[in-house]
Amino acid sequence: GITPPSAAKLGINGFGRIGRLVLKASVWSKSAQTVAVNDPFMDVDYMVYQLKFDSVHSRFRSEVKAKKEGGKEWLVIDGKEIRVYHEKDPGSIGWGESGAEYVCESTGIFTTVDKARQHLKGGAKKVIISAPS
Known about the structure:
Elements: E1 8-13, H1 17-28, E2 32-38, H2 44-52, E3 64-69, E4 72-77, E5 80-85, H3 95-98, E6 102-105, H4 113-116, H5 118-121, E7 126-129
Parallel strand pairs: 1-2, 1-6, 2-5, 6-7
Antiparallel strand pairs: 3-4, 4-5
């Protein structure tokens, strides 16, 4: 589907089970669009594999591929590009340059207000912590 211009632009930090579920939900949502993903420990090709072949939540029905160009990477889902980062420091992730307004913090590491606040340095406006904090 076509995402309306008013859709919330999401960034996802951590591409484990929760991060992948947030991305999948946003693909089918008209009110949210994932524009960036960060995971320092997973390369973009493995992200594609993890999305395509989820043994618990079934196969992802969208077309997914990796794009690498000029030292940058993207997940391409049904033709839409999602910028991929591999930063360990949340303050170094280019949320602002990718257009992410909201960040879903799903690493399980940055679960306090002080730690999650680091995402704001990268240009995010708000952080949603997806773990008990």
